[in-house]
Amino acid sequence: MKVGAPWVNYSLKIPFLLSLLGVILISISGWLGGALSFEHGVGVAPQHDSPEEEVSKVRFPA
To answer: What is the pTM of this model?
Structure first.
């Protein structure tokens, strides 16, 4: 059932290009969101631990 096919003259070029554009834009958005949170610390509250808490987090090789 090709309901929307007459709108694009039965060619799949336009729907494919729009889908590809959407994937590219979502990828760029994810990249920029990761950069904001990991590189710039946007949306992340700084963690202030006491020296005792810092020592308890250290992992030693088994």
So the answer is: 0.58
